[in-house]
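Sequence in, structure out. Go.
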Amino acid sequence: MVHTVYQFDDLGSIQAPLHLALGVFDGVHIGHQAVIQSAVDAASLDAGVAGVLTFDPHPIQLLAPSVAPQRILASLDHKRDLLAEFGVELLVVIPFTREFAERDAHDFLASIVSNTTQLSSLSIGEDWRFGKDRRGDTQLLQEFGEKHEVKISSLPPVMLEGERVSSTRIRQAIRDGNLEAASSMLGRPYTVLGTVIEGEKIGRTLGHPTANLKVYNEQLPCNGVWAVNCVIGDGETHLGAANLGVRPSIDGSDKKRLLEVHLIDFEGDIYGQDMEVTFLQLIRNEQKFESLDALKDQITKDVSFCKKLRNS
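Output:
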C-alpha cells in the first residue's frame, strides 16, 4: 500500500533514507517508469523508502488552461494504484495552487531537504522543469545535490519508433482508438478508473444490467461498444461488454457521454465501488436502433462476441 501525504512537513516522519522521483507522471508511461524505477532501485540498495513527489492538479491546468489537455490519463487515485505496482511506498502530492506556482526552484528544493531527515537521491527526466517560470533544471539540481550530498539521477526520454514517448502522444492514440500504440507507450493495457454510480436501470429491463461509471476526467477512447475486462472491489477480473457514448436508442436520454458496463456472468451489488476498465477491442460503433427489442438482440450478440473473444 502506498502511503500518501500532502505537505512537505509530512516528510519528517520518514526516518529511513528517502529516494524521490519528481514529476507529474500523468499515465505513468514507460518514460515515467524509467525515472520511478531509478528511485526504487536506489532505495533497494540502502533499505530506503522509494517515493514519488507529484502535483495535483496538473500544473498546466492552472498555468495555461487554454492549452491544457481536457482529459488526463490517470486520476490521482488511479496513479496511486499504478505506482504501487512499481514498488513505490510513498506518494507526496503537493497541491498546485497559484501561490505554489510563484515559488522559485531553489525554494521548492529547500522545502524538500529541510523537511527530510535522510534525503538520499532525487530522480527526474532530463527535460523536466520546475519552479517559477520553469527556471529549475538538471544543472540546478546537480548543484543542489553537490551542496547537500544528494545523488541526482537525470534520465533521458524513452523513444519508441523514433519518437519520444509522451502523455500527449498517448492521449492522441487513445482518442484515435489506437489502443495498441497507447499500450506500447504505457507498458501495459490502457485502463480507466471510475466509481459505480446509480443509473436509470434501463439495461436491467433489456436483460443486461449495466454498471454506470463515473470516470474521473480520464481520457476515454472513441465511442462504441467495447469488449472489456473489469476489476472491481473483489480484486477479480470480470469480462464485460461496455457501451461508451450517448445512447441514441434511448428516448429521453440527455445525450451526455456515458460509460456503461455489462459484467458477463456476474451478479452482485457493486454500487459505490471502484472499477478499473481495460478496453480490449472495439466491437462496433454506437448506433441507433429502431426499437428496444432490436437493441436487446444486438446486445446479446455483443455479449456473445465478448465470450468468443475470451475463449479465442
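Check: The chain has two domains: 3-167, 190-311. The first strand starts at residue 3 and ends at 5.
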